[in-house]
């Protein structure tokens, strides 16, 4: 794709590229370091930690991450409120996308293989996500903001859509070593139905309860409540030619609480 940004096709550089793309999809555009000979395209990315719109429909995704909604699967019969802003480890998320995108050096020193939860449905089952919330996680736009060619971003979008965006889809292997698993995370009634639907394999979609009314901002089922941990302040990321680091400054200019360790749709794979 765009390893020219980091010069050499190494495992560490591939991991860095995944970090740059995923972090941007999470928090939106941020200041990129100057790299000689590289001009980054002006592609706006909202970031799922900020309110925004997708296909002219308002999307309010922060409550899924700050503990506002009881939407996280901790192994019980219903969701719980979890503040993911307290966590500072996102390596599993980069590993997951590395596997999806077929990174050639993954599994060697510098870029470990993904060994997280195999079923994305199970880790998102209490979120009741609809097509607009799914589409708002704009990995393709994020990649385009770093100069990835349109044909490559289109391929990424198609791969993610076929795997996660169809309600009642039959089991698929997101990670080949883990075998076929239920992967649909668009499970609301408004999600497109899979042509090979196996709805009996999935539970009923239920609107998540409210864990913190202030943070939920009007979302969720107020008749169902849970506890959420306090929100932590985390710094903003800085992209460099060889790594992604955190600064201590708050991300006030992003309209959010900063970079969480976990980013949107795939991140809940690490909550069980």
SSE topology:
Layout: H1 11-27, E1 52-54, E2 57-59, E3 69-70, H2 91-100, H3 120-124, H4 131-135, H5 139-144, H6 150-164, E4 209-210, H7 213-216, E5 221-225, E6 237-239, E7 244-246, H8 264-267
Helix pairs in contact: 1-2
What does this structure look like?
It is a single chain. With 272 residues, the protein is of the alpha+beta class. Helices cover 24% and strands 8% of the residues. It contains 8 helices and 7 strands. It has helices spanning 11-27, 91-100, 120-124, 131-135, 139-144, 150-164, 213-216, 264-267, and strands at residues 52-54, 57-59, 69-70, 209-210, 221-225, 237-239, 244-246. It has a 3-stranded mixed β-sheet. Strands 1-2 form a two-stranded antiparallel sheet. α1 packs across α2 (91-100). The longest helix has 17 residues, at 11-27. The protein is globular, with a radius of gyration of 18 Å. Residues 227-272 have low confidence and may be disordered.
Gist?
By secondary structure, the protein is of the alpha+beta class. It has helices at 11-27, 91-100, 120-124, 131-135, 139-144, 150-164, 213-216, 264-267, and strands at residues 52-54, 57-59, 69-70, 209-210, 221-225, 237-239, 244-246.
Features:
single chain, 272 residues, alpha+beta, 3-stranded mixed β-sheet, two-stranded antiparallel sheet, 7 strands, 8% strand, globular, disordered C terminus
Proportion of residues in extended strands:
5-15%
- Main pleated-sheet profile: 3 strands, mixed
Q: Can you list the strand order of the major beta sheet?
A: 3-4-5
Extended strand count: 7
Structural class: alpha+beta
Q: Averaging pLDDT over every residue, what do you get? A: 79
Please provide the ordered H/E string of secondary-structure elements. Answer: HEEEHHHHHEHEEEH
Helix content: 10-25%
Task: Give the CA-based shape.
Answer: globular
Low-confidence stretches are 227-272
User: Total helix count?
Assistant: 8
* Oligomerization category of the chains in this entry: single chain
């Amino acid at each position: 794709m765009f390893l020219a940004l980091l010069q050499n096709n190494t495992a560490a550089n591939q991991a860095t590229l995944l970090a740059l793309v995923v972090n941007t999809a999470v928090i939106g555009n941020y200041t990129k370091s100057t790299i000689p000979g590289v001009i980054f395209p002006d592609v706006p990315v909202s970031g799922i930690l900020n309110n925004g719109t997708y296909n002219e429909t308002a999307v309010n995704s922060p409550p899924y991450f700050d503990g506002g909604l009881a939407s996280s699967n901790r192994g019980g019969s219903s969701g719980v409120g979890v503040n993911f802003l307290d966590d500072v480890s996102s390596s599993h998320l980069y590993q997951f996308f590395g596997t999806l995108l077929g990174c050639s050096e993954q599994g060697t020193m510098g870029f470990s293989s993904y060994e997280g939860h195999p079923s994305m449905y199970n880790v998102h089952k209490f979120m009741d996500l609809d097509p607009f919330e799914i589409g708002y996680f704009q990995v393709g736009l994020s990649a385009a903001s770093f100069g990835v060619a349109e044909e490559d971003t289109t391929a990424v979008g198609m791969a993610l859509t076929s795997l996660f965006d169809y309600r009642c889809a039959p089991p698929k292997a997101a990670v080949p070593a883990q075998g076929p698993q239920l992967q649909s995370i668009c499970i609301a009634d408004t999600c497109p139905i899979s042509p090979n639907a196996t709805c009996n394999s999935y539970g009923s979609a239920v609107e998540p309860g409210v864990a913190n009314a202030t943070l939920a901002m009007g979302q969720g089922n107020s008749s169902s409540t849970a506890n959420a941990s306090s929100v932590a302040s985390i710094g903003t990321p800085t992209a460099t030619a060889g790594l992604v680091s955190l600064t201590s400054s708050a991300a006030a200019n992003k309209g959010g609480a900063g970079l969480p360790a976990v980013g949107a749709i795939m991140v809940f794979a690490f909550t069980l």
